[in-house]
């Protein structure tokens, strides 16, 4: 038996044998039929020659095959090396759809490494920096039929959630009177402030407003001395430089980024302190490898992390990432957090409105693949474009 490599001391010599890919019939919110959120909940499993299996989530078949094929027969423990090859190993670097597949595989690689060492993922990322992660609820159930927003916000806080989240798309139709919507949301903010108190509520503008209306509502919130934990997605996300204008004209805490991907999508927002919280998430950024780099960038500029909810395995991974850092952080939970998934005997540990790190190896997730449909198996190596390397072995470019 060969001794372990210096870059993976204590890990066994191993190679990636195959990548198995399973389809899921529901979207990230558990809805079948026509998914509302085009967030993949497909499950990916990396199998090694020694029999280790790492679990990840995300992506779609074509880009999954392209990324997975680049790893067959290689060392599963050189995670950043795989990330660079999957990201840059074709003429066109990964767009957001491919980044999603790459991210799902990256989750599986980290899960596999944790299992190989018999430790939970957060231990590999630097250990605990917090005991639990506070959460906010999206679509918290009304405590009684006909309950008001004030009463629902209060019940959410009493259930242990740090924040009750409301949104501009709640209670209205598809035809929007912008002036009426601003007024209605302002009144809802008054109710949430009364029910949840300072920092106990948040409002998602849902990218629905144009800048003048977003600024007007933020100004109304400020002038009334209301105290939201954050205001989310004030305008559309395509032109991030528009947040320069918003930042100049409002002082509400801004959270943004759920529609964005890797660090190059978010860096100007963070470095110019145009936002207070980063909303990018897993696996969308390109997995845990990239997410920890985003956290490091955010910490440098005193920006917190409030990742968008995505899907259950990715949520389990987020718990580990946020456990291992000390930036201000919140996680998003749908409803009261009681939902389960038939194909996941174990996912994340949620109780009393909070996410708790667990001691299970890797991500701490178990999958019953008999409840899923296999949509791909990749066991043939395809290099893509061969990347050049520096003398030390690190990649430059093709």
Describe this entry's structure for a reader.
The chain has 398 residues and is α/β, with parallel strands linked by helices. The chain folds into two domains: 6-118 and 368-378, Enolase-like, N-terminal domain (Enolase-like, domain 1, 2-Layer Sandwich); 123-356, TIM Barrel (Alpha-Beta Barrel), CATH 3.20.20.120. Helix content is 32%, strand content 15%. It contains eleven helices and 14 strands. It has helices at 61-69, 79-88, 96-117, 121-125, 149-158, 178-196, 211-223, 243-249, 263-271, 288-300, 312-323; strands at residues 16-23, 43-48, 53-57, 133-138, 163-167, 201-204, 230-232, 254-256, 277-278, 304-305, 331-334, 349-351, 354-356, 373-378. Strands 4, 5, 6, 7, 8, 9, 10, 11, 12 and 13 form a ten-stranded mixed β-sheet that branches. The chain has a four-stranded antiparallel β-sheet with strand order 3-2-1-14. Helix 1 (61-69) crosses helix 3 and helix 2 runs antiparallel to helix 3 (96-117). The protein is globular. The relative contact order is 0.17. Residues 1-6 have low confidence and may be disordered.
């Amino acid at each position: 038996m060969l001794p372990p490599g210096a870059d993976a001391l204590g890990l066994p010599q191993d190679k990636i044998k195959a990548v198995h890919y399973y389809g899921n019939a529901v979207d990230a919110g558990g809805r079948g039929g026509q998914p509302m959120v085009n967030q993949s909940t497909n499950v990916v499993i990396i199998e090694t020659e020694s029999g280790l299996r790492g679990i990840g989530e995300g992506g779609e078949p074509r880009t999954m095959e392209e990324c997975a094929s680049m790893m067959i027969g290689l060392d599963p423990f050189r995670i950043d090396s795989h990330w660079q090859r999957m990201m840059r190993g074709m003429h066109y670097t990964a767009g957001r759809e491919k980044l999603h597949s790459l991210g799902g595989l990256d989750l599986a690689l980290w899960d596999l490494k944790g299992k190989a060492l018999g430790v939970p993922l957060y231990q590999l990322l630097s250990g605990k920096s917090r005991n639990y992660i506070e959460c906010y609820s999206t679509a918290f159930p009304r405590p009684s039929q006909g309950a008001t927003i004030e009463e629902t916000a209060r019940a959410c806080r009493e259930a242990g959630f740090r924040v009750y989240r409301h949104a501009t798309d709640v209670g209205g139709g598809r035809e929007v009177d912008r002036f009426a919507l601003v007024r209605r949301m302002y009144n809802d903010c008054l109710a949430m402030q009364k029910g949840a108190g300072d920092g106990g509520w948040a409002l998602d503008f849902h990218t629905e407003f144009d800048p003048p209306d977003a600024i007007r509502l933020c100004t109304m919130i400020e002038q009334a001395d209301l105290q939201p934990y954050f205001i989310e997605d004030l305008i559309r996300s395509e032109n991030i430089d528009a947040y320069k204008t918003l930042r100049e004209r409002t002082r509400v805490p801004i959270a943004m980024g759920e529609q964005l991907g890797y660090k190059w999508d978010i860096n100007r927002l963070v470095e110019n302190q145009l936002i207070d919280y980063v909303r990018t998430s897993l696996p969308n950024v390109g997995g845990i490898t990239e997410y920890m780099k985003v956290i490091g960038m955010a910490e440098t500029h005193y920006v917190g992390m409030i990742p968008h909810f995505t899907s259950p395995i990715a949520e389990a991974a987020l718990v580990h990432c946020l456990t291992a850092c000390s930036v201000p952080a919140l996680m998003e939970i749908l409803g009261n957090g009681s939902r389960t998934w038939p194909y996941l005997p174990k996912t994340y540990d949620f109780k009393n409105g909070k996410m708790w790190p667990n001691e299970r190896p890797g991500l701490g997730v178990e999958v019953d693949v008999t409840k899923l449909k296999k949509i791909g198996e990749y066991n043939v190596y395809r290099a893509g474009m061969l990347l050049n390397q520096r003398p030390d072995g690190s990649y430059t470019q093709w």
